[in-house]
Write a structure and sequence with these properties.
This protein is an alpha/beta fold and 226 residues long. It has two domains: 2-95 and 185-197, Nucleotidyltransferase, domain 5 (2-Layer Sandwich), CATH 3.30.420.40; 97-181, 2-Layer Sandwich (Nucleotidyltransferase, domain 5). The chain contains six helices and ten strands, in the order βββαβαβαβββαβαβα. The longest helix has 18 residues, at 70-87. 43% of the residues are buried.
């Protein structure tokens, strides 16, 4: 299987082409906080050229769906859906939390992994995986104290942009984290691997926000309809 993986959810703009027969064919990751919209399509073009592969040769496209930046998510998902439509290939959504956790689960699938993304204002996006990648805590947004409470019930490895936040607030009475991996974006290769393993779905990828946008309509400022 050949897959194009795309990630613009957090602090990177990344793409990779994977082939189940030959492993990673090509990849590129650019650290960035903003500017994904301008960087993504040229980056995908370079990766596809490096892989020496036309879009029609792909079997599927995978893209991170969040949680993450509202703007970044829309950029990546729009690109994935557009390429999928043009190439007549299916597109699959991979959550950012699962992508963060995947490498740690592959390394040791018997211990717990906590994936955490900074949601600002002393909140985090959180998911906890148990043995074999089984979901112990479903994706959610939680206050820092609640997130630490959920994660510290058992020895765990912490990964994601909020890993250090959780570790700094860790209760003294709980078993200390087994590892702290505070990377700012998931490994794009694991986005592709999860996309290869994803079950077929008829619905296109869509953002996983886990909270409402900060900007809300001002009802008082609306003009009355005639």
């Amino acid at each position: 299987m050949r897959i194009l993986a795309i990630d613009t959810a957090l602090e990177a703009c990344a793409a990779a082409v994977l082939d189940t027969e030959h492993g990673k064919v090509a990849s590129e990751t650019q650290p960035m906080v903003r500017g994904h919209a301008e960087a993504l399509l040229p980056l995908i073009d370079r990766v596809m050229r490096q892989a020496d592969m036309p879009f029609a040769a792909l079997d599927r496209i995978a893209v991170t769906t969040g949680p993450g930046s509202f703007t970044g998510l829309r950029v990546g998902i729009a690109a994935a859906r557009g390429i999928a439509l043009a190439a007549a290939k299916p597109a699959y959504g991979i959550t950012t939390l699962a992508a963060f956790a995947a490498a740690h689960i592959a390394l040791d699938d018997q211990s717990t992994v906590t994936a955490a993304v900074d949601a600002r204002h002393a909140h985090v996006y959180l998911q906890v995986f148990g043995a074999g990648g089984r979901v112990l805590v479903a994706p959610r947004m939680a206050g820092l104290a609640d997130a630490v409470r959920a994660a510290s019930k058992q020895p765990t490895r912490i990964v994601g942009t909020a890993a250090r936040m959780l570790a700094d607030a860790w209760p003294a009475a709980a078993p200390p984290p087994l590892a702290i991996d505070n990377r700012t974006a998931p490994d794009i290769v694991w986005v592709g691997r999860l996309g290869i393993a994803a079950e077929e779905s008829a619905s296109p990828p869509k953002p996983l926000y886990l909270r409402a946008p900060d900007a809300q309509p001002q009802d008082a400022a609306r003009l009355p309809r005639r």
